[in-house]
Amino acid sequence: MIELRFSGTRPNGQSISGSFNAASLSEGKKRVGLLAEKNKLTINKIEKKSTFIYKVRKGSDKPIKGEQKAFSKEEVVNALTKLGYEVISVNKYVFEWQPKPPTQDIVSFVKITAELLEQKLPFSEIITLLINDIENKTLRETLKQINNDLKKGADSQTVFMQYEGVFGKFTAYMLGLASKSGNMAEIYKATAKFLERQQEFKKNIRSALLTPMITLFVLFLAVIFYVGYIFPETAKLFQKFDIELPPLTAITLDVSDFLIGNIWLVLLAMVLPPILIWQWGMTKKGRLILDRYMLKMPIMGGLIHKTLIEVFCRVFYTLYSGAAESIEPIKIAAEASGNVYFENQIKTISIPLMIKTGAGVSESFEASGVFTDTAINRFHSGEETGTIKNTALQLANYYESETVFRMKNIIEMIQVFIAMIIMIVMIGLTLVSAETATISPKSPMLG
User: Fold this and answer.
1) Full-prediction pTM beyond 0.70?
2) Which letter does DSSP use for residue 97 in this model?
3) Contact between residue 36 and residue 42 where contact means Cβ atoms under 8 Å apart
4) Rg of the chain (C-alpha set)
5) Tell me: the pLDDT tens digits for 83-99?
6) How does pLDDT run across 351-385, given as a tens digit for each residue?
7) Rounded Cα distance, 126 and 113, in Å
8) Which end of the chain is more exposed for a tag (fewer CB within 10 A), N or C?
9) For the chain, first and last CA: distance in Å?
């Protein structure tokens, strides 16, 4: 998210200016163009707020360096001059790139803020304390800007949503909402819990899927190297002496000849499908289909499905305040799940059903087809007893306990499975090598 400022003139010659936030410079120019067309404005200038490095001195003191965001160099010079500094130099960053902060840094910020809020410290003091302690430059500068905007009286939700590229859409929404709520500490605490669970789940997914896939891929490359390069050097030596090869050696040599003769085809078959699937998964339709079938994967599918319901219920519990205002919490909770198919089913089936026909929560969730029978039954009981908010928390805690326990078992099972594959491959290579070692040339006397 970047901040832009434009200036122009009305048809009557009156000057006009304004500033706004946009995802990119091109998007900002497009928005200014539409505004100019609608109001018949003549746009004179569009400026982007950038970071400037300055070097100043006060009196005979040693020169000091610093950074300041501004729309132009003149703004920085004027501001420093008003503060009584002698400006030595002001230069704009040539390459201004701010990578997104690590998730762990954001989790730490939210968690520490929640703890300090529970101790009744003012939010402005907490932000000031954290700005001085946070090491990540992007997060530190973001908090500085947020603190400045809030001090000017800006709407907290608008301010935080400007930095959804830093915090993530859901986190930015929750932190902005917290400042408006009556219980700021509770929302920060719930957001920290959500982020921790999300981080833990991604870590477990890497352990369960990514690491084994990399291990198998490296093992596959090692086998190809052995079969395609090392093994033929020995086996073809026997062919020169017209020695009959044992069955395993002969089969392995045939595979080796195929690999060597079709090396580019083999490499293309290995590399192209993952790239095509990844590119397809980046499209809206591809992501929807992949996320749908992710819930149906053997072993991991059910676990991922229940984790999505856990995340949904945890966010729903935090935001839900009553049946009359249930649409927005359901929408935000669906977005927080991170699964496009899960989110789409709730937004296109459950929410319209509630709005158009006045259907209840459990009935609408059941129609979406993305909730388990257990979840539907619990929500139905919660509706009847008027405890749907607490029911959501109970479901979140229940599925958290179940998924954590099952994930540990699955990771152990996958590790055993990978170990068995490695063992089988090593035994196969050992048998082929041992069989090759038993080959001996025919005796010259017999010839």
Assistant:
1) no
2) -
3) yes
4) 31
5) 888 888 888 877 666 67
6) 999 888 888 888 999 999 999 999 999 999 988 88
7) 7
8) C
9) 84
